[in-house]
Design goal:
The protein has 183 residues and is of the alpha+beta class. It has a single domain, classed as 3-Layer(aba) Sandwich (SMI1/KNR4-like), CATH 3.40.1580. The chain has 5 helices and 11 strands, in the order αββββααβββαββββα. The longest helix has 21 residues. The chain is globular.
């Protein structure tokens, strides 16, 4: 694992710890059909506590299928991001408004996540945009998608059906830093 990937994992771990302290314990509807290693004890009728947990064993190339389908290199930072934690979306404050990071909930969710990533990237290509896999969504009125540009690793904000992109951070670690500062 590269030094930048280790830094990203540490930043994500800090973000999740601070989010739980600031926002309170995470709960989710109890759905036996959708298990996850993130699930903890009962939080009340029909609800379970959960926490982001490290993926063990860590997948070597979690986005290899996306890389092959797009015939484009996936940055190490994006591989580290998606291969780091199992997590339900956590709505976090940010300089751009509330957002939810998109991480896999379990190993069983990987095929769906990869299909969604591929569909997103193919739609971008249709609009003559460089494919940029998503990492988060803005919550609220904007419906913005936060993605990672493949050629330089910059984090960008885009809107469905539009060609414009706003650069939010030069890399994924800086983006997570902005989220830590907002908590």
């Amino acid at each position: 694992m590269t030094e930048s990937a280790i830094g990203l994992l540490e930043a994500l771990s800090s973000l999740f710890t601070r989010a739980e302290v600031t926002l309170g314990p995470f709960t989710v509807e109890d759905d036996p059909a959708w298990p996850s290693p993130s699930l903890q004890g009962q939080a009340g009728p029909g609800r379970r506590y959960w926490q982001p947990v490290r993926q063990q064993p860590r997948p070597e190339a979690p986005l290899a299928g996306l890389e092959a389908a797009l015939e484009l290199a996936i940055p190490d930072s994006l591989e580290a991001f998606y291969g780091s934690f199992f997590s339900d979306p956590i709505t976090l404050p940010s300089p751009w408004g509330p957002l939810s990071l998109t991480l896999p909930w379990s190993v069983e969710e990987w095929p769906r996540l990869l299909e969604n990533q591929l569909g997103h990237c193919l739609q971008q290509q249709r609009f003559k945009l460089e494919p940029a896999p998503f990492i988060a969504v803005l919550e609220g009125e904007e419906d913005g998608i936060i993605s990672l540009r493949l050629h330089d690793g910059a984090v960008v904000l885009e809107w469905p059906g539009q060609r414009t992109r706003e650069t939010l951070a030069p890399n994924l670690e800086a983006f997570i830093g902005h989220l830590l500062d907002a908590l």
